[in-house]
Amino acid sequence: MSQKYKNYIQSLKPSKLSSVDYHEDMSGIERFVSEDFPLHVAVHKIKERADVPQKYVELHQHDVLEINIILGSDDKPLKYNIQLGDENYTVQSPAIIRIPANLSHSANLIIGSGTFISIVMTKDYHAFSEDK
Ligand SMILES: [Zn+2]
């Protein structure tokens, strides 16, 4: 077998939330990324949290589209605070969110357990804030 499509399949490796700008580590949230994928994909495994008191993702934006997918566990749906521009939304799983290029945004867990996936349409993650 030639395995010419071998690189299409990538394993996800643990990576700290704080390794990306505008994000801080949060207990109960594990982040996984592929170093060698043509898009920036981050999969977050969320263990059950009673509540998350602090904001761990600050408002930021990208010059490309970002998509967020929120999948809760069957018994404990996920609830996120999603800020888009100057508007705040409480979003319950399952949900998909479109974040156009240059719209400032943040996603902060409120409660629940499951999986939060962020896909940014670039290989090289770059974030900036409005007041840059
Ligand atoms: Zn983002």
Description of the molecule:
This protein is an all-beta fold and 132 residues long. The chain has a single domain, classed as Jelly Rolls (Sandwich), CATH 2.60.120. 0% of the residues lie in helices and 43% in strands. It contains no helices and 8 strands. Strands 1, 2, 3, 4, 5, 6, 7 and 8 form an 8-stranded antiparallel sheet that branches. It is globular. The structure holds zinc ion (ZN).
The CATH architecture assignment turns out to be Sandwich
Instruction: Please state the structural category.
Output: mainly beta
Distance N terminus to C terminus?
A: 50 Å
Q: Characterize the largest beta sheet: strand count, sense, and whether it forms a barrel.
A: 8 strands, antiparallel
Full CATH superfamily name:
Jelly Rolls
Topology:
Layout: E1 13-14, E2 29-33, E3 40-49, E4 66-72, E5 79-84, E6 87-92, E7 95-99, E8 105-120
Antiparallel strand pairs: 1-2, 2-3, 3-8, 4-7, 4-8, 5-6, 5-8
This protein binds zinc ion (ZN).
Brief description of this entry?
The protein is mainly β and 132 residues long.
What tags apply to this protein structure?
132 residues; mainly beta; Jelly Rolls; 8-stranded antiparallel sheet; binds zinc ion
